[in-house]
Protein: Phosphate transport system permease protein PstA
Amino acid sequence: MPRRSPAPEAPEVRRSLGRLQAGDVWSLFGAAAAGLSLTGLLYTQLTPFSGVIGFVLLSYLLFLVCYTLLLAQTNDGPAVRDRLAAAVVHSIAGLLLLALAFVVAFTFVRGWTALTNLGFFTRDMSGVGPLQPLEEGGILHAVVGTLIQIGIALAVTIPLGVTCAVFLTEVPGAFSRFVRTVVEAMTALPSIVAGLFIYATVILILGFDLSGFAASLAITVMMLPIVIRAADVVIRLVPGNLREASLALGASQWRTVLHVVLPTSRSGLATAIILGTARGIGETSPVMLTAGVTTALNLNPMSNSMISLPLAVFEFVKSPEPVMITRGFGTALVLLILVILLFAAARVLGGRGPGQLTRRQEHRRVRQSQRDVRRMTAAREARARAAAAAPPDAPTSIVPGL
Structure:
């Protein structure tokens, strides 16, 4: 009896894992509807369950179960696991985005009343009590104090942080490994410890007064390890062949760092500065210990107390009066807007990628190229005229560089 030949296997259909297909979308909606329906049935008919949080958690778990069963009907094991993991990851990302949007929206709604008053930005709280209306008093002293403190801190942190990150990357050795370990340990340093350190050394031992400068030093202690750690990671991502090419052309190590490594990692360094600024601009306890609390505007960071926006928020919301609480939410909203503006400025200044030029730099390069073309053309014409005027038996001169 002749043996039957095996049936040919169907060709495997390639599937793109990076984008959703129509069946995936319908599976998501179907699983979500099934999860909500089953949870509603359990809560209203079959069980004595109650509570919003339990309803949401049970709905999500049933959604994952239904989604897995629907995917298993048309996909193999790896595709089911991939889509299930993608659903979980996207759910967590959506939850975090929803929480962020809720915080921003809640702060905006509670603080918008304070922002509608122009005096909120042009006055300080000198002589203003908790029972006085929003039209009296403002946060000018806190805004100026925050800008001065974070400006001094950035002026100290940026050169020290970038230089230390370059040292850790370009000068390997036992000492650099020790410094990296210390930096990583300092990233988890509590802010109150930094404030106590500056208070004990700068104020008690060196004799400085409570001032914005002392608060800037405390903020610097908090920002420096963040900037160093992030900048170190970014600089280590620069391809080694760029360094090798620069060294092969005769450049020294530090000229290579200055003209190759740092420009290549400019965008990442801007991100490191943003992370450090986000850590320092929201600190409250170090400022309270080293700068104190004041209700008057102080433009001198070397003497007298100087308050910041986070500390002003803390002082406002301590009061039980609704007007002061509204001032606190308005101050928090101003701080949020200020942070967004600083981040946008950092992105504009350092967001260009390697090799990307500004419009002014492009015009400068074009003008330089045009000058080079004119110079080379004039030199070529001069050489041609010299060759035409020379005797036939005269040797031909070679112009260097052409």
About this structure: DSSP finds 15 helices and no strands in the chain.
